[in-house]
Amino acid sequence: VPARLALTILFIAITTLAAEPVSFRAEIAPILQQRCIGCHGEEKAKGGYRLDTFAALSNPGDSGEPPFTAGDPSRSTLHTLLLESDDDARMPQKAAPLPQNETALIARWITEGAHFDGDDTAQSLSTLTRSRFLRPAPKTYPRPLPVTALAYSGDGTALAVGGYHELLIFHPEKNDPPRRIGGLPERITALAWSPKKNLIAAVGGTPGRWGTVAIIDAADRFKTRILCDVPEQVLSVAISHDGTLLAAGCGDRTLRIFELPTGTQRHILRPHADWLQSIAFHPRSHLLVTASRDRTARLIDATTGEVQTTYRGHDSPLLAAAFSDDGSHIYTTARTGPVHIWAPQTAAKTNTFTDFTGTLENLTTTPAGTIAASTDGTIHLFQTAQKSPYLTLPGHHGPITAVAAAPGGYTFATGSAHGIVQIWNTACPTPTQTFRAAP
Ligand code: HEC
Asked: What is the rounded distance in angstroms from the CA atom of residue 395 to the CA atom of residue 357?
């Protein structure tokens, strides 16, 4: 017995010594972010209570009771509501109770004084936890990574490719290794490269946990700035033709419009009931088309934030949207069914294309027509007035996961789930170049 007692004492001594104070930034914020923000954030504040910043979560909601009393978890609704036996009263509502290690961590943080260890109590929890989701990029890639995003520079000589925690800039004409720009999310879901200001917009994140909109200045040593952090992955991005507006479509259902080059947020809009999968600007105005998993597309004036028309022609989640080169038509694709072509101002369907195989997850625009890339590896080129693809190219072995056109030209690039990039010209049936998009 004495030996066991000694061991127990030793164990207690070690665990007590090892226990660092609980960090709000590193340990509490991620729990709240994942479990609570959906009902207590910018978008919804159930019970009049927000916990998307430390400042907000310190203020009482409708109950008028302070959410926590430093030093006393039993007098802190932020803790007691997690343990309620009544399902309707327990937080998070309509979900399983938090695991015991998480409720214990929250209790310990309150017992230790409920300290804030960030820089600014008004910062969003997403911004506070950003560093948890950023890692150095690997030196080399052991396996090819799916090419999830592509964008061409204004002069068409450089191609930006989304990598793992980095952006890769290739010059396909030369054989040099890519330039690597780190400090980015694990997954880049979309890219836009504005010829006017030579800025690259990169969006992405970690599914279900964090997302971000970053701007990389290609004219100034590829310096990177983060414009915002959101509690879900950011899925789509576009920059207006004149380079003054950036639009980002997010997994938290928000559409965010920023002014460039300042990066000031002009609007947070909620035009859809589900993810904004794809967005595209009109080639000569500030009109924006958004394609959502909620089965609709909308035409939005990005200057005012006003929804102008809604297109309801598809009967499955939308995947991609693009304007025709002259801006007179919009192309949209969905998980099932044909490509739809419709008029922006009236949302009236003018044509559909059924003559393709696979699912068309990506669209881009060239003067020769609109290019749609399929999950079966084929590439189709459509023109508004015709019934069938004008051109079908054999493409990749495996799904095409990204496509981008060089501004104003006939060159475009496709990227596959197997990590291969192909460069094409709309006048030529075979790729002009093929390379593996990894350092
Ligand atoms: C599905 C929605 C939902 C989720 C998720 C949710 N809550 Fe709530 N919360 C509510 C509603 C609704 C109320 C209003 C009181 C009620 O109806 O019980 C509320 C009230 C509260 C209050 C009381 C505010 C006041 O002063 O009146 C606190 C504190 C709270 N929630 C904490 C949390 C925490 C912490 C989490 C995450 C662990 C969480 N909630 C997750 C819906 C939710």
From this structure: 13
